[in-house]
Amino acid sequence: MTDKTALKYTAEHEWIALDGDTATVGITAFAADKLGDIVFVELPAVGAEVSAGVVCGEIESTKSVGELYAPVSGTVTAVNDAAVDDPAVINDDPFGEGWLLTLTVDPAAVAALLDHSAYLELTGGQA
Questions:
Q1: Which of 5, 23, 70, 97 is 20 to 30 A away from residue 112, measured at CA?
Q2: Containing domain of residue 8, as a range?
Q3: CA 19: distance to chain centroid?
């Protein structure tokens, strides 16, 4: 189980786990719940440059289509092909097997994001 208190978050409901200059990115359980049953995921290509706050992917559910925003600027180093092949894993385990991509980033940019307490405040107590 991922320690949610160690993660950083965005107001667009992405989570970020930082390990050195590598950030693993996913959507929160709050976002997955609001989307409903996720049926399609489109992610950027490995090697792509993404910019903080700019759309870098798409998540479709039975209810709606959501955009994936890059939480910080960086270079995509991996995408979760398992989540692309079986998007339901994002609903089932958004903080684990449902991760979406990894980025090489400036760690200082991640430090500026929301901490767990601030994210809980934003969502009314749900992560």
A1: 97
A2: 4-123
A3: 15
